[in-house]
Design a protein that fits this description.
Length: 558
Amino acid sequence: MLEELRIADLGVIARATVPCGPGLSVLTGETGAGKTMVLTALALLLGGRADPGLVRPGAARAVVEGRWRLPAGHPAVVATLEAGGDLDDDGALVVVRTVGAEGRSRAVLGGAGVPASLLAGLADELVAVHGQADQQRLSRPAVQRDLVDRYAGLAPQVAAYRLVHDRLVAAQTAAAEVTDRAAERATEADGLRHGLEALGALAPVPGEEQQTAALVARLTHAEALASATAEAYARLTDGEEGDARAQLVSAGRLLQHAAELDPTLTDLADRVAELALLAGDVASELTSYAAGLVVDPAALAAAHERTSALAAAVRRYAPGQDAAALDAWSRAAIVRLTELDGDEDRREQLAAAVTALAGERAALAAQLTASRQDAGHRLADAAGAELAGLAMAGARLEVEVSPAEPGPFGADVVTLQLAAHPGAPLRPVARAASGGELSRVMLALEVALAGADDVATMVFDEVDAGVGGGAAVEVGRRLAALGHRHQVLVVTHLPQVAAFADHHVRVVKDATGDVTTSTVTVLDPADRRGELARMLGGFDGSDAALGTAAELLALAHG
């Protein structure tokens, strides 16, 4: 539970310490005294928005500190240790929030700096805050459904349903995507098949472009090449004394004879002899080359056609590359075609998954509906019994669970209906109840839910608005009953409610100086009587008011 709240330079509060004991604690004070700042301080500790306008004028920063006493293993304790923080020496968890006048804020959990979002994530584990806004929220179907689920402890059942629902939605989305893209993917597959057939017929060979280009050049210039090779052959070996080969043979012999006189010429003689042999070899190859040269227009046309076909294939399937890339395209196309051809199998698998998951979701939704119907009857009975004690004895409360399109939280619409007095028709609670009645309905529901809520601390901010007289006494009695199972902190203007408190804190405004200041005081029994008298009639010193206050205290604690 929350043990203590310390506030410095927040709004009208310069310095304040608010002790928070077990049971029912009430916070009272005149309008504008600063009660709201106490709740604002608590909101900051729970990760609320840090508004620099909250900083007391003239102060550099506002500081709020809260001390919680929590059991080992509590989510907030676990989160503190994971964030690098620790419990205080006495085992308390200390949370600090600082708001600078320039707009910067800082959150500290167990001595470790943390983002405010971490505090916000722990808020529901530490405090349940109920205000007049909750009464307006009560008109929302989602809030009414959540009340029933909380009462019955259906969170695990809802989570199991949600898991199957999400899987079904994912399968339906995937199936729709495959179906929607079927035509597109079929067109892609046809294109790949056509490409593979075309390249299969073309049968390109790596390096073929260069070979074909050389063939085109040779066929185009066949006559010139024949003339050049014939002339070269004649100059090498035409049989005359002056040809190159004969000259080399003659030079070789001269050097061989000279080498007999000077052995150092032997290497040169051998090399010249080798040149003569090479000249003979070249002449022989020229003969073979010349024999293969033909002027063949048909072969030239075929070579040109092959070159064009290769170029067209490269432009279509491997732009910017060469024919060698066509083989890589074919391999990739085969892999992709295998994937596309598997679409039909994929569609069948997804259709089967959708059918199976839809059946599983329907079964879980039916179980959830049955659980909500049962819980709704029990919650309506429990809250209705509380309404009888809240001066609404003739009121009738019902929870209607009607079918709806399956969604993330089931296939139900949960509607809280109220007949505010005998003979009145059942209507949605937000339209059937006045402001004061709605406050009592909300409180009746919270009392009924008290046993189902794990949160230790409950805060009620003027939920008794619009309630008075005997109904106000019963509101106080119900809040005191809640205090037997939870720590309850209530901000109230009603003396009938404040009289039931185990601890009474008063906020008093002092506007005598240049800056309005509020102080927070824990009241002893005598002071409590005076505060109740003030709340009763505004004259805390009158004997009548003090007498009535004493009667209220006796009624509440007698």
